[in-house]
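Check these lines:
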Amino acid sequence: QVRLVESGGGLVQAGGSLRLSCAASVNIFSFSAMGWYRQAPGKQRDMVATVTSGGSINYADSVKGRFTISRDTATNTVYLQMNSLKPEDTAVYYCNAFGRWSKENYWGQGTQVTVSS
């Protein structure tokens, strides 16, 4: 059974940093891609950053130059380093993984990030 467990959210002042972690219960090469999405109140869930099994990375324009996605294959963990945080980054952040063979979309439970001005 695939589980994705996020951690690292919290309350931070504008300009601060947070690092989110997503620990997978299976080898992350079971996924063709992993990533982070976020959803603010009353808004749709949007892509923040993704990384493919081949290492290709994609960022939303709004976070380019501030956020960095990375992965640790030894611990089956994907990270999102968030620097220069802005109030508009406030949202629930979700870890996502797409099964290489199952073709299923997996989601974590979400972690709240709140940036105060």
The mean pLDDT is 97.
